[in-house]
Specification:
The structure holds two protein chains of two kinds. Chain A is α/β, with parallel strands linked by helices. Chain A contains twelve helices and 13 strands. In chain B, 72% of the residues lie in helices and 0% in strands. The chains are: A alpha/beta, B mainly alpha.
Chain lengths: 310, 269
């Protein structure tokens, strides 16, 4: 995932990005490379630094440290060439314009654009051309933002929590439009705090917590991190290396006299512990996907993990 | 459906627009927005015309001559004053629209398009000038219909042009206010302050009627220089360097203020 395709520069390349707002250190050293054609989810709770990172990629803010390039250019250059578009969470629309006027206005600013009628069709708002933006529902406004983003036929589409505040119906409609569009091979990066959205729509999921990347992999890999069970036992003087050798054990934690063994086949691990070691007080706990996500991304990671295991 | 595959040639073929994205379609939609705003039309076209009808037709002085060596009558003098009031209010309003657009997040949205910041400011200036022209035209047409103002035909043209071009100073003032005030109430504040400036500049009442101290202060207010300059052709009085100095100084102050706030605005987000 790190090498360039066809000798092209990566769609996004971030190196050592930090962003500080006064005392707040929102982004703490993000390195990231996204190739053309990937569909990537930025998954993390509110305040994890997703929006700050996206603002840097879009050139809306300058990083306090580090470098950013989009298709080998400065973000502003890539935007002026219509290579990147974005759908932001809220705002960004004039209520006194109609949907059609908003699109004509936006289209007029680019050198090459898709026909307005075409993007309206793709965003599912063809029947709204003459409606005032102020009279559109939240979901309709969001689809208008999506249509605006499609005008320049961008190579890279960035969506910042695009379904916030939408009802279930609106979310489904919006994602259907995005998915149809992504099938054409556009590179998509979207931020979300809904695990389900990341799972359903992304090829690659990047977990962000407190301004840092805590996990980066396919949706299946991220899920595997959360699958299985944890076996906890009291085992004084545990030999960590030996515990690793137990078939099926993925992760071993030793905390004083307590050992935590993460495994898909927890039964086998339990059997081994009880028959081949002096382990006692055995406990087996399941970790749901949602719990894993919370554990990986919450601010109190350690205590949350411990809590989930008890 | 064809699947895209990005090639280096395609990447290189992508171009940024000319003039930073400034174009006629965007301008025409901006003007349509203005024309749709009833409040703006009332304040910048109808009000100044009504002021002319109130102050420019009074038989006690309307037909009086403007003095020795000057052209036309007092009604023509008032006509130019009211056109200046309307045009400066119009260009200020046009510039101040950025305040509403910032509050709506539209200026941030535009930063995701090729529209360059100077082109956005240029677009606002042009829109303001169109509104200013509308205001001058409205007052002059109403004046012409009443048949009261009297001055040579070339002075109608030259005076209207002077007022219109001069009103550009206040487009910069509007931008300054628009970037300074984050509120949607900027229009009310602006109506009040333009009224103050108009009294200060002697647009409504000749400065000769003011007490001495007030008059000294008035000569430093932003509409003073412009007001003198736009009446200069009619009064055939020549141009005092102090008037030009006043107008240019305020143009620099407003432009610098707008540029300063603009930089803060784009750095913040």
């Amino acid at each position: 995932m790190t090498q360039s395709v066809n000798g092209l520069p990566p769609a996004i390349e971030l190196r050592g990005i930090h962003k500080r707002f006064g005392q707040v250190h929102a982004v703490r050293g993000i390195d990231l490379q996204i190739s053309s054609g990937e569909i990537v989810a930025f998954l993390g709770p509110n305040g994890a630094g997703k929006t700050s990172t996206i603002d840097v990629i879009l050139g809306l803010s300058h990083p306090s440290e580090g470098s950013v390039s989009v298709y080998g250019m400065e973000p502003r250059q890539a935007i002026s060439r219509g290579l990147i578009s974005a759908v932001m969470q809220t705002g960004g629309l004039l209520k006194d314009l109609t949907v059609g006027e908003t699109l004509q206005y936006t289209a007029s600013l680019f050198t090459n654009t898709q026909p307005v009628a075409e993007v309206m069709k793709r965003a599912g708002i063809s029947e709204l051309a003459d409606r005032k933006v102020g009279k559109c529902s939240g979901g309709e406004q969001q689809r208008l933002r999506f249509a605006m983003a499609l005008l320049s036929d961008p190579e890279l589409l960035i969506l910042d929590e695009p379904t916030t505040g939408m009802d279930v119906e609106g979310r489904r409609g919006f994602w259907t439009a995005i998915r149809q569009d992504a099938e054409l091979g556009r590179t998509v990066l979207f931020a979300t705090h809904y695990l389900e959205e990341a799972d359903s729509y992304a090829d690659r999921v990047i977990l962000i917590r407190r301004g840092e990347i805590v996990a980066d992999g396919t949706s299946a890999q991220i899920k595997a991190m959360a699958a299985g069970r944890t076996v906890r036992a009291t085992l004084p003087g545990a030999d960590e290396a030996k515990l690793h050798e137990i078939p099926g054990v993925e992760r071993v934690e030793v905390r004083g006299d307590t050992v935590l063994l993460h495994a898909i086949d927890s039964d086998a691990v339990a059997r081994y512990l009880l028959t081949s070691t002096p382990a006692k007080d055995l406990e087996i706990t399941t970790r749901a996907l949602e719990d894993a996500f919370i554990a990986l991304t919450s601010d109190e990671s350690d205590s949350a993990t411990a809590g989930a295991l008890q | 459906m064809t699947t895209r595959s990005l090639s280096a040639t395609e990447l290189a073929s992508r171009r940024a627009p000319a003039f930073g994205g400034l174009n006629a379609i965007a301008l025409s939609i901006e003007i349509r927005r203005l024309l749709r705003n009833r409040r703006t039309l009332i304040f910048t076209m109808i009000m100044p015309s009504i002021f002319f009808l109130l102050f420019g037709l009074n038989s006690a002085y309307a037909n009086d001559s403007n003095g020795k060596g000057a052209y036309g009558n007092v009604s023509a003098f008032v006509l130019i004053s009211m056109a200046l009031y309307g045009a400066t209010l119009a260009t200020t309003s046009g510039g101040a629209m950025v305040s509403i657009e910032r509050a709506a997040g539209w200026s941030r949205q535009l930063r995701l398009t090729p529209l360059a910041s100077p082109a956005y400011v240029g677009l606002k200036m042009l829109t303001s000038l169109v509104l200013g022209l509308g205001s001058v035209a409205a007052v002059f047409i109403v004046g012409g219909v009443t048949g009261k103002p009297s001055m040579p035909v070339w002075l109608w043209v030259v005076s209207a042009l002077c007022v219109w071009v001069g009103s550009l100073v206040f487009a910069a003032f509007g931008l300054f206010l628009g970037y300074l005030l984050p509120t949607e109430n900027v229009m009310q504040f602006l109506g009040f302050i333009m009224m103050l400036f108009s009294f200060g500049g002697g647009v409504f009442i000749p400065l000769s009627q003011y007490p001495h101290v007030l008059r000294d202060i008035a000569e430093y207010t932003p509409l003073y220089g412009l007001n003198q300059l736009v009446h200069a052709p009619l009064l055939n009085s020549g141009v005092d360097i102090a008037w030009v100095g006043n107008a240019i100084a305020w143009l620099i102050i407003f432009t610098a203020g707008a540029a300063w706030r603009f930089r803060k605005d784009t750095a913040r987000v």
